[in-house]
Amino acid sequence: MKSAVLKALGDALEIETRERPRIPRGEVLVRLRSAALNRRDYWITQGLYPDIHLPVTLGSDGAGVVCEIGEGVQTHWLNREVMLYPGLSWGETPKVQSDDFQVLGMPRDGTLSTHILVPEPCLYPKPSQWSFEQAAALPLAGLT
User: Which domains does the chain have, with CATH numbers?
Assistant: First the structure.
């Protein structure tokens, strides 16, 4: 798989070939068909975002097709067109995120890649009348 990786602040992203990951329990591998840029991605490249961890594959928004599922994942997701919710580990309180909350694209690798590994709760069915580009633009970029 190929990923656009930020290795140093202010530098261009570098295209890297990476090995396909082992799929952990409760996660899926999505073959991305589209990714959307977000202002957050730019802020990270410029060092204007807190707690930056490098190297990282940026991108919080994406849509694609589930190509592999880990143990414990509902099988109906396999080969399904999906859009990704980029928030991870929100926590138990709906009004405030937990200390473990993260957004795809840093510190966990994001959607500027041919494939992405995400937990099952990040999956939402892509509306059939939407293109992959439309579905990729909604989750974070379209709502912020």
Answer: 24-137 (3.90.180.10)
